[in-house]
Amino acid sequence: MNRRPLRIGNASGFYGDRLGALREMLTGGPLDVLTGDYLAELTMLILGRDRLKDPGLGYAKTFLRQLEDCLGLAHEKGVRIVTNAGGLHPAALADAVRELAAKAGVPVSVAHVEGDDLMPYEEGALTANAYLGGAGITACLRAGADVVVTGRVTDAALVSGPAAWWFDWAPDAYDRLAGAVVAGHVLECGTQATGGNYSFFTAHDVRRPGFPLAEVAEDGSAVITKHPGTGGAVTTGTVTAQLLYETQGPRYLGPDVTARLDTVRLEPDGPDRVRISGVLGEPPPPTLKVGVTRIGGWRNEVVFVLTGLDIEAKAALVREQLAGPLAGVESADWTLARTDHEDAATEETASALLRLVVRDPSPDRVGRALTSSAVELALGSYPGFHVTAPPGPAQPYGVFTSATIEATRVPHTATLPDGTRVAVDSASPAFEARGSGAEPRDGGPGAQPPVTGRGGVGESPAGPTPRARPGGAPTTRAPLGTVAGARSGDKGGDANIGVWVADEAAWQWLRDTLTTDLLRDLLPETAPLPVTRHELPNLRALNFTVPGLLGAGVASGHRFDPQAKALGEWLRARHLDIPTHLLPPPAPEGTRP
Predict the structure, then answer these.
(1) Residue 465 predicted with pLDDT over 60
(2) Which pLDDT belongs to residue 551?
(3) What are the backbone dihedrals phi and psi of residue 160, each rounded to the nearest 5 degrees, phi first?
(4) For residue 100, how many other CB atoms are within 10 A of its CB?
(5) What is the mean pLDDT of residues 548-558?
């Protein structure tokens, strides 16, 4: 007998997301399950430092604050809660939830999933966690849990685990499981699926986007939507953007299924409703991804303000004056951001920023003495010398790396509401999210993405004047973002950029034009790196991965945009020759801002 679709929502995309979202989702409309994603690479480092201070910590404390206000409401409405807020200590958070429920007089049963913590892992490791799938969540829900707390499961497992419970899917129902993984990937970052961080944000009211939910059907298809009356929008564009976020190749590898992103089909299903269908699944790899964090050393920074004329000469003078104090420091990176404007009407817009970032294994070499030596230049350096902050002490920075481990070596365990501990078979229904980075096991589609050599930056001057290439359609020099959306993100030290267009004609042009060579030309910071391009024709999208762009990851503060969140928007702002017929018509006179 067919069962009605599972209605599953999201109320958190990261540790620090909107505190009132849990209540908003519980009161906004009917749900069967409500999930919360609190974990990211940087979060694991934060929780690891919490655990150093107090072994009883290591979980997302804000989840408890939300639950104080909402546990009774969830029980009243019959909504089960599934969250990875357990972080490094899911058992402790489960106990805290039980204590909270007892104080509030709410009769809920609590279970948790563990086994992902591989510490002690290796010398210097602060945390080491395998990315588990959804099978432990499934087992807890089957045992009657109202609240399921996990450690480091994959983000999409928060949806695929409940879906496997709801429909009682077999472990080898790969197509259905893959569909649930894709739905989970869309939901995992909260309001990024409902218009948040969206390239074409001006087309919608995104001042306060509502959180997303999915109606997952028994065949694995799903409809992405949101509660009625909430802000933002759910369109094929917003869903495409999230599908491309922090992914790599067409095969989305996971602990219990490999979802084929190149088979995903999207279609509108009414206002603020987008249907996902056609997702094919393949067996999972035999290994799990392991995320490892460690303290990489100590860092500090000084930002000098350079105003008016002779910006380059002023920057050169400071660098020369600090050459002595910087001798012996392991790493000293200078970046000059030319935020200054010629003949500026305000002092701020007449100023550039010179940023010095130093790193060293010793806090003494990059501590207050070093930053004080920079400030000591105040009366004997370039005219107009000042900095954005007073001297400060060195701060520890983190490093994230990933590895793999045989799935059979990870003790994936579900602790049921009655305290029974159940070993979860590594072949049970559960899933990876955001891609593990492993290569496909065969040479099938997606193993070697096609790359065309066509499409250079072009020699024509900037400007709106259409012109025809020999034998081609007239073109206009314009930003790529005039016709294409983009979303970018991080996986450790690597970045990805997903680029998509709305119609077939634009897709044919984008596919033929935006090569890896052109991407390197448009984004010079990627030029020395081994950029890889993947095609996703069903989404009319290209996905680029840029290994090493982010150094040792977000916690190391390697670059200006350490998580590559705006890398796609930088790409959209770059100009190239675009066929004029693909560009939107100019706004009528009197309507331009």
Answers:
(1) no
(2) 82
(3) -70, -35
(4) 17
(5) 75
Interatomic CA distance for residues 490 and 561, integer angstroms: 10
- Provide the pLDDT for residue 351: 98
- 540 neighbors 502 (Cβ within 8 angstroms): yes
In CATH, the architecture of 292-393 is 2-Layer Sandwich (3.30)
**pLDDT band per the 50, 70, 90 thresholds, residue 443:** very low
SS (H, E, C) 441-505: CCCCCCCCCCCCCCCCCCCCCCCCCCEECCCCCEEEEEEHHHCCEEEEEEECCEEEEEEECCCHH
**442: pLDDT strictly greater than 60:** no
Residue with tokens 């501590």, as numbered in its chain? 367
* 579 upstream amide cis, omega within 30 of 0: no
Question: How is residue 408 annotated by DSSP?
Answer: G
Residue 441 has pLDDT above 90, yes or no: no
SS3 65: helix
pLDDT band at 448 (very low <50, low <70, confident <90, very high): very low
CB within 8 Å of 583: residues ≥ 6 apart: 476, 478, 482, 483
The C-alpha angle with vertex 568 and arms to 503 and 211, in degrees rounded to 5, equals: 80
Strands 421-423, 413-415: parallel, antiparallel or unpaired by DSSP? antiparallel
Mean pLDDT of 85-97: 98
pLDDT of residue 587: 67
Return the structure tokens found at 572.
Answer: 């959209």
Using the CB atoms, write b or e for 19-47: b if 16+ within 10 Å: eebbebbbebbebbbbbbbbbbbbbbbbb
pTM of the model: 0.89
DSSP 3-state of 200: coil
The number of C-alpha atoms within 13 Å of 234 and in the hemisphere containing its C-beta is 29
Q: What are phi and psi of 110, to 5 degrees?
A: -125, 135
**pLDDT on residue 460:** 30
* Cβ–Cβ < 8 Å for 590, 390: no
- In single-letter form, the type of residue at position 121 comes to Y
- CA 152 – CA 115 distance, rounded (Å): 9
Give the relative orientation of helices 174-187 and 236-244 as an angle to the nearest 10 degrees. 100
3-state secondary structure of 91: helix
State the pLDDT at residue 391.
Answer: 87
Distance CA 544, CA 497 (A): 5
Using alpha carbons, list the distances in angstroms from residue 50 to 47, 55, 126, 503. Answer: 5, 8, 11, 48
In sequence order, the 6+-apart residues with CB closer than 8 A to the CB of 102 are: none
3-state secondary structure 303-329: EEEEECCCHHHHHHHHHHHCHHHHCCC
Lookup: tokens for 253: 């590898």
Task: Confirm if 15 and 62 have CB atoms less than 8 A apart.
Answer: yes
Residue 251: strand pairing partners: 260
- Domain residue extents for the chain: 6-285+404-423, 292-393, 475-582
> How confident is the model over 85-102, as a mean pLDDT?
98
Alpha-carbon distance of 244 to 544, in angstroms, equals 10
Tokens of 481: 């973002």
- Residue 373: CB atoms within 10 Å: 16
Terminal CA-to-CA distance of the chain, rounded, Å? 57
Confidence label for 107 from pLDDT (cuts 50, 70 and 90): very high
Helix, strand or coil for residue 409? helix
